[in-house]
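Risk register update: the risk that structure generation would not scale has been downgraded. Supporting records follow, first protein first.
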Amino acid sequence: MLTVAHLSKSYGARTLFRGVSFHVKASDRIGLVGPNGSGKSTLFRLILGDLESDEGTVAFRNRVAVGYLPQEIEPSGHETVLELATTVSPEITTLRNTLRTQQPDSEAWHATQSRLDEWRLYELEPKAKRILAGLAFRQSDFQRPTGTLSGGWIMRAHLARLLVQEPGLLMLDEPTNHLDIESLIWFQDYLRTYPGAILMISHDRELLNQLVGSIFEIAQTRIIRYRGNYDAYVTQRAMRQEQQWAAYKNQQKEIEALQQFADRFRAKATKASQAQSKLKQIERMEKIEAPAVLDRTIAFHWPQPPRTGLKVATLTDVHQAYGPVLVYQGLNLSVERGQRTVLVGPNGSGKSTLLKLLAGAIPVQGGSRELGLHVKVGYYAQHRIDMLNAGRTVLAEVLDASHPVGEQTARSVLGSFLFRGDDVFKRVSVLSGGEKSRLALVKLLLNPPNFLLMDEPTTHLDMASIEALIGALRQYKGTLLFISHDVYFIRSIATTVLHIHAGRLTPYAGNYQYYLDRSQALSERGALTAGSQLADGRPAEPGVPTRKTQRRLEAETRQACSKRRRENEKKRSGLEADIERFETQQKTLAAQLENPETYTTPGKPMELNRELTQVVESLKILYAEWDQVATSND
């Protein structure tokens, strides 16, 4: 499918690739990894033809279609979300733009519409809607202009377009940065059955472990292929580096011995020829390069926060709602010193709300929040980025911490989070969202609070930066509550788990593996959004709420179930009416297509076929919805 042969690329004195060659087959699932700045995105651009190589070739077989998702995409124009998702060819965009400028029902308008119909968009739309729904778009979003969306949602819409298009080679550059956990799980499952090849840059270990069968590592201007997923790559890489290091040291010893002989005897007439022979032997050797240095975590002493009392924070009988949507009622929670707790549960269950309540970022509507003795709260979320001073340089922002550190220490930590060389003199205002996020982390970790609350801290961080953050948090002596979809990060940090669902908190007095065992989860990542605890519905550990609160919650749950059952009955009746209407329409359209007179009117058969396809697809969706509602009533 794709052959890269003897590819080389340099920028001035810096060489990114030298003599790189590899093949990508039709069924390959490949993860591309390497340090920041090693050339991963540059390699993508060379493959796509956006950059010229210094040497070598890139060749595709059988005119394979290539789809590419970059890390950032410019905002779209006037097209809707659904229009973008069905734009499987640039011609479609051109035709749509032309259609907007033409007089409706004019001859030119009909000619353009006819050409647009040839793309059979009515067949693509149902597929696009299913994919958009998987990426968390609501039906009401389908007709929204993409120009009104945030950058993250625009990326999702472009990702949907690629999945609808189904190119033979799908090239993805950090595709999960803008996905929430449930969309990420859907996306991971969808890619398992993707019909083409996938070449992906990602820092998501779990995604690489579940999806890829090979890892391409960019190291020392070459690409080394490892068979297996990311965990297999880590093991093989360590073994390879040990072997390379041993071979390198042995060769260096041999070169040193030969050089010493030549230096000692080159001045003696009787030994001069032998000395010259030793020098030539050194020249003829195929030199073994020293192995690349393994990624290191930060290696300096983090300033530790003052010790708190045993009770760090307490929420008592808290009531919290967003308008008519009740999140918590009668919530009771006690956080104790030294806990490292990950919050898990379905989207919308209240994980982020709980962090905000504990941080004091939102006021408690009912009940109380109390902090313990000497507690200093630190809250890391997206709005934290806005607290940076846009007019300062990166280095100045770090040096202005309330717990000052020396410039050398500041540079060392910044380097761990990918601010290297002249990067530290960049203005904060010109940093990307990911760079601002990393800078906020550096400031937080250099002056750590003793009660740290973090919402998705690994987003936008590469592998080395995640390791740096893990290294920092392992040294951290305070209390930590966090939300994350990174299973590797959770396993490295969390010592307890707090499950949140339907306003109820269930603590697990063990690490993430303990939670998986007790909850009988089907997958590590799926367990992050699980809505129930044990298979039989019982909590795995004693719940936090009091008995009185528990009885009230149970009564509310019964009432909610009754209400949901009534709503399902109403929805099923509506679906059955819709199904009957569409089935009647299907029979009518089929009868018209069977009538010979239909074919005497130009364009009529195509119009009827289009309507029939839409009706059939609508029926499929209605049948599936009816099935789901009927099952939930059982």
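Supporting record for the second protein:
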Amino acid sequence: MLQLANISKSFAGRVLFRDVSFQINRGERIGLVGPNGAGKSTLFSIILGEQGPDDGKVTMERGITFGFLPQESAPAGDETVLELATMHADEHSGWEVEPKARRILKGLAFRDSDLDRPARALSGGWIMRAHLARLLVQQPDLLLLDEPTNHLDLESLLWFQEYLKSYPGAILMISHDREFLNALIGRVVEIAWQRLHFYNGNYDAFLREKEARAEQHRQAYENQQKEIEKLQDFADRFRAKASKAAQAQSKLKQIERMEKIEAPLETAKTVHFRFPQPPRSGQRVMALKSVDFAYGDLVVYKDLEIEVERGQRTVLVGPNGAGKSTMLKIMAGILSPQAGTRTPGHNVRAGYFAQNRTEMFQLKRTVLEEAMDVENRQPEQFVRNLLGSFLFSGDDVLKPVAVLSGGEKSRLALCKLLLDPPNFLLLDEPTTHLDMASIEALISALSGFEGTLVFISHDVHFIRKVATTVLHISAGAITPYAGDYQYYLDKSRATSERAALTSGTKLTDSRPEDKPAAAADSRSKVYLTRDEKKAANREREARIVARREKKKEIERCEADIAKLEEQQRVLSGKLELPETYDNSARAMELNRELMGIANSLERVTAAWEKALADLEALQGQAD
């Protein structure tokens, strides 16, 4: 269908690829991968005829049609959403165009009331969805998609993924979404080291094969180097001896005749950072008690009760509209409960990240200046390295923030959050607009994060690497699962790992402590006498009281620790002043006070740790 033969392309004096050839056949599903700046988007431009190669030739079948979805932005004018979706498609499908467009727009989460709205009135993400609908209606022979899932919510993404499985044309896509690639592609083309490398299978198969090829290459290279060294050693030792000179020369010619195996190229490794750590919070990080929240007549939560404890890494799952983002915003203090209370724990500082939260920036600053402007300022080189891992490399850090795309601003906001992290992180789809290397850098950062994390994501790889607990939200009801995502999947009847993220029904076979009492199976009820019920209720109430008292004890200890630490800071400051030692008696008195505070701190800290252990034991007892 389309062939690139011996293509070379340079940009700004840098070679992107040299003498590469590539063929796309009808109906193929191909993933185009490679590090940022390798030339993926440039290869798209060459295929589309927007720019020509420096050398080589592009040939294609006559009459072939193309459709291209860019990563960031696409135009929108006075046409309605429906008119945009049907643009340039009438000659292809006639009377079927509009019904088809309506079905596709509905799959991409447009409501009927949206279809007659001017496209320009939509946000950037929804304009991109409308253009995606346009391409699917047109149904070109070759569909080129550059990060098509960036602007889709999870349910729309699942619909889109299923739609593409039966798409009749060929697809060439760039995507950071592993699950999306695994579900669709049958071949991978990797751009690396100015070449194209071809692999059969999905993305996981590509990773396995790439690793195997690299190991085989390394072994072959090392074996050849050993053989060359052996031959060279013989030649060096015996070329001066007349009886061995001919043999020595033969060995040298043998080396010359060898087809040399190139030295293995350095594989780009994930950047690992040790980020600055936030101050330690109390055991209870956040408590929502009897919380009600609604948007007008739409009730999201009624009498919500939830506590988050230090060190938890919780992913929120459930269908669209269940209230996941609303819960994050309530915890962050961005939304206020209409009834009930939101109570942060001792020494808790919350930080909230969402894709559209970029108003914090001063637009006249450069990327580097903005990243450096955090309370706990970091060395410039450290900041540059971090920015580089999130796709701001070289002179990109000198660009004004005002010219950044939405995705670039989102990445910059994430960088700033990591440079001075709070001890309670609330992240809403943090991997959107990140390439795979940047996602790994974020995973690495969070693996060393010593605070508490609650997040939403549709990236299963990211969830598996980060989450240690799962909270299912549906119709205002919450169900905690005291295990990682695999545990959650084991209790689910979902057809795939990703489908489980949007499950609207309560999962089956979960452990007793994971189920609300009301969800218990009536067939397994235990019937008690009246006296037994009273005794059980008394024991349950005693456990609840004991836990409540233990939590109060922990809070008292934390308050005492904070007070003693402040006294310790003040006294230490006085002892650092030279004039303090003009009065030796006063200096000795201050030292005695400081020692007394240190002893008190040790005693209160021990009591705090014991209370925490007691609380954990009490929480392990079922009610």
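The two ends are 66 Å apart (CA to CA). On this basis the risk owner (M.S.) recommends closing the item.
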